[in-house]
């Protein structure tokens, strides 16, 4: 795999260097390019290209270091080596920080394509071997982490003991960004069917399940014993919501206003068990999905909504990595966990 990857890199880096050399010969400023000739062989170090690309994407050395999980000095050292090896100045002072030069911007744009091709080459090679091995960085929103991931990870560990999975809990928007940037290999996200989430170009997704949401009301609420509740019947109620800016908060406000209800937010809590506790205390109503739902407190009642409200749960990954056996194995494990969850809901 290393040999095939380096052939791909060699071809594209050669093209980059030719463009840089052409730019250098046409440049009228001596500050951007040094007299030192380009040395192609050193450009095959992907870590240098990753460092430069990260600074280009995140806008600073510090932010790039956080994304790559290294120190800022390590990023600076990689770019300094790249400067010496290309003979081009790649960063320059800009007030208290630094900015990339035009030469660095050109190289970073090509680096993005190179890194994508490397990922595709690695995925194709792993697919050829058929081995589910290596490391997989996975991100998921809170209720999926609690409701789907435990069973999926146990199944994956039993079937593929040589695959190491690192799980991180993230908001759906952040999961999508980090998958697109290559910080996560796979993510589990949600969108509400009446307010879908945009998926950037270059990502693929698979539906895992539809998660129905019910309205939670205090046990002594006049509608607590109903078989179904229309949102319009909850006019004048106070609501328990997630924090402003979160997917669930924005969806609740959108849904209530779509039903001609002006949301009055009494309390904000991002975890649904906390929302249920606040409902049980008589502090308001909440709309709570079924996935990852803990035991309902005695002081709260859950009633289905009419029309039904639900969110769709997806797995999402970079299309360039779609052939990786580890990606396929993770998606299959999540799909199996989702089917078990749906079967449990059907029984109840």
TrEMBL record:
One of its GO terms (molecular function) is DNA-binding transcription factor activity. Residues 44-101 form the HTH lysR-type domain. One of its GO terms (cellular component) is protein-DNA complex. Pfam families: HTH_1, LysR_substrate. Keywords: DNA-binding, Transcription, Transcription regulation. Belongs to the LysR transcriptional regulatory family. This is LysR-family transcriptional regulator. It comes from Nonomuraea gerenzanensis.
């Amino acid at each position: 795999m290393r040999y095939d990857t380096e052939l791909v890199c060699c071809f594209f880096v050669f093209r980059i260097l030719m463009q840089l050399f052409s730019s250098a010969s046409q440049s009228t400023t001596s500050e951007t390019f040094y007299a030192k000739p380009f040395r192609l062989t050193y450009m095959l170090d992907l870590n240098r290209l990753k460092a430069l690309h990260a600074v280009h994407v995140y806008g600073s050395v510090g932010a790039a270091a956080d994304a790559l999980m290294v120190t800022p000095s390590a990023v600076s050292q990689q770019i300094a080596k790249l400067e010496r090896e290309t003979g081009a100045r790649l960063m320059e002072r800009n007030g208290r920080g630094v900015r990339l030069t035009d030469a660095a911007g050109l190289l970073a744009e090509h680096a993005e394509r190179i890194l994508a091709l490397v990922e595709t080459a690695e995925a194709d090679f792993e697919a050829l071997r058929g081995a589910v091995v290596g490391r997989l960085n996975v991100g998921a929103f809170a209720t999926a982490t609690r409701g789907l991931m435990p069973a999926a990870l146990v199944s994956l560990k039993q079937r593929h003991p040589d695959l190491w999975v690192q799980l991180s809990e993230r908001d759906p928007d952040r999961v999508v960004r980090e998958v697109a940037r290559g910080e996560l290999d796979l993510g589990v996200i949600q969108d509400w069917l009446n307010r879908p989430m945009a998926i950037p170009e270059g990502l693929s997704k698979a539906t895992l399940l539809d998660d129905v949401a019910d309205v939670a009301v205090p046990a002594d609420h006049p509608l607590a014993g109903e078989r179904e509740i229309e949102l319009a019947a909850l006019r004048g109620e106070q609501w328990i919501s997630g924090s402003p800016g979160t997917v669930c908060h924005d969806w609740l406000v959108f849904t209530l206003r779509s039903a001609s209800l002006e949301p009055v937010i009494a309390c904000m809590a991002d975890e649904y068990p906390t929302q249920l506790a606040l409902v049980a205390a008589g502090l308001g109503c909440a709309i709570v999905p079924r996935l990852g739902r803990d035991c309902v407190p005695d002081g709260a009642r859950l009633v289905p909504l009419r029309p039904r409200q639900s969110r769709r749960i997806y797995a999402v990954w970079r299309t360039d990595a779609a052939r990786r056996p580890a990606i396929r194995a993770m998606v299959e494990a999540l799909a199996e966990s989702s089917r078990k969850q749906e079967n449990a809901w059907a029984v109840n």
